Amino acid sequence: MTTIYDLHCHSTASDGVLSPTEVVARAIEKGVNVLALTDHDTTAGITEARLAAQQTDLTLISGVEISTTWENRAIHIVGLGFNETSATMTALLTHQAELRYQRAVEIGEKLAKVGVTEAFKQAKMLASGEVTRAHYARLLVNMGKVANENQAFKKYLSQGKSCYVKAQWCDIPTAIEVIHQAGGLAVLAHPLRYTLTNKWVKKLIADFTQWGGDAIEVASCGQTPEQRLLLAQWAKHFGLLSSVGSDFHFPCAWVELGKSLFLPDDSLPVWTKLSLD
Ligand code: AMP
Ligand code: MN
Ligand code: MN
Ligand code: MN
């Protein structure tokens, strides 16, 4: 039997809608054997997830998705298999949480200007953990301002739109260094989801490699076979390991824990460098 890995997903500790316990239960139901919970800039859900995974066959490894800024854009770096009690990691995540909070307040102020009153308070009520733009998107959907979350980003929340607020996230070398100091591996998340041209994605991967990054996400659900092969090729070209992750946030038809997360045959999986006991 093949082992199913899913090394990128979210819980209510950030913008997922299932609790860490529910994410673990769903992962088991979907046949996942090894799971990393990778909430945005927080490890707050991991203790609960680990408890839920105890006395089951699921192996839970620590994870986080760190927001960084590169070339004036938000780029996500996943950390895997690190020590959550690491002082440098805790310090970075505490700082990022402060930035996130401040940005959320400012987004609320901008939303007031387009007629959404008390947006911050309401977004906070929708969040059990970190307040992300996804919570604002859900608020706008609930209010009937937009039809779906994607529209909320397109109309209000994306870079360049009226309610966008730039966050001063750490840079990529800092994220990599902190993950390494905590004993983990640094993975460039979803390289094809940054609306960059392939030339720029290659530049991003080249920089990430030069700064000591370990892996890129090669397999995700919903990608085309060509995209998977291209990412596998880039991993090989830059001498990086390959990771897999659904980026699951909530149950829906197109993204599922453990779904279609296979790597092309000649890939070097990131878990060859993770200790899984
Ligand atoms: P933040 O980290 O607060 O900037 O929020 C980013 C999160 O918003 C991402 O992790 C996604 O979950 C979500 N997101 C970003 N763009 C979109 C989009 N176009 N449609 C739906 N969700 C999105
Ligand atoms: Mn998210
Ligand atoms: Mn991401
Ligand atoms: Mn994610």
Automatic annotation (TrEMBL):
<protein>
    <submittedName>
        <fullName>PHP domain-containing protein</fullName>
    </submittedName>
</protein>
<dbReference type="InterPro" id="IPR052018">
    <property type="entry name" value="PHP_domain"/>
</dbReference>
<dbReference type="Pfam" id="PF02811">
    <property type="entry name" value="PHP"/>
</dbReference>
<dbReference type="InterPro" id="IPR004013">
    <property type="entry name" value="PHP_dom"/>
</dbReference>
<dbReference type="InterPro" id="IPR016195">
    <property type="entry name" value="Pol/histidinol_Pase-like"/>
</dbReference>
<dbReference type="InterPro" id="IPR003141">
    <property type="entry name" value="Pol/His_phosphatase_N"/>
</dbReference>
<feature type="domain" description="Polymerase/histidinol phosphatase N-terminal">
    <location>
        <begin position="5"/>
        <end position="70"/>
    </location>
</feature>
